[in-house]
Amino acid sequence: MSVVPIRVVPAKRTELRIDAMMSLGAASYTDVFEKQVTTFELATAASQWTTECGVKPGTANYADGSKVIYHIWGNNWGNITCKPNADCDKHSFVTNERIKKGATAEEDVWKEIRLYYKAYPNPREGAIDYWKKMKQYFPKSLNTFQSGDMKLVAETLSKEGYYTALVSLYQKNLEFYFNRY
Questions:
Q1: What pTM value is reported for the model?
Q2: What H or E segment, with its residue span, contains residue 98?
Q3: DSSP 8
């Protein structure tokens, strides 16, 4: 067994206009599923991408007023993590993650952890891998994308282990963006 060296690359931010994000998201869905994405599925995914990428409402605009999704670090649409020794390019950030869920939010245990996020050579490859990961590891969540019910989406993503944030906060962000897409 050979040892794979840790390949950490500089974190580069990709900026995409919303129309380009939606177009790439739809095309990459077709690449993975060999069918067209529905409007609700795409709007839900875009809401998740925006939530995961940390866009702050009202702060992401080009000079001409068109919208941009900021903070797609390494062309990684869903903040897909990997092991430090995974055979891929990656960038690294220290983030505050919930490591133990308590009976109440006050009893949750949070810790700053260094996470490694896959880095892709271009936005399309990142989007394709997002859909592949959703299909392979989060199928129940993916099935909720058609519902338009952001509470159900947030709860299912949490149960399947997609994120560690509070469900109520994640749901609020999904709803905010879903209503705009």
A1: 0.85
A2: strand 90-100
A3: B
CA 55 to the chain's CA centroid: 11
| Segments in 8-163 forming alpha helices (H) | 18-33, 39-52, 123-137, 139-144, 150-159
Buried b (16+ CB within 10 A) or exposed e, 68-85: bbbbbbbbbbbbbebeee
Contact 71, 14 (CB under 8 A): no
Tokens of 34: 């060999």
- Please give the span between the terminal C-alpha atoms of the chain, in angstroms, as a whole number: 47
Q: Take residue 141 and report the two structure tokens written for it.
A: 């969540």
Listed residue (129, 47, 28) closest to 80, CA to CA: 129
- Burial degree of 175 (CB within 10 A; 0-12, 13-18, 19+): middle
Quick one: DSSP state of residue 64? T
pLDDT tens digits along 49-92: 988 886 655 555 555 555 555 567 889 999 899 998 888 888 88
Residue 179 is classified by DSSP as: T
Task: Give the C-alpha distances (Å, rounded to integers) separating 93 from 20, 83, 103, 165.
Answer: 26, 13, 28, 16
- The pair of structure tokens assigned to 85 is 């020794």
CA distance linking residue 73 with residue 78, whole number of Å? 10
Q: Three-state DSSP class for 180?
A: coil
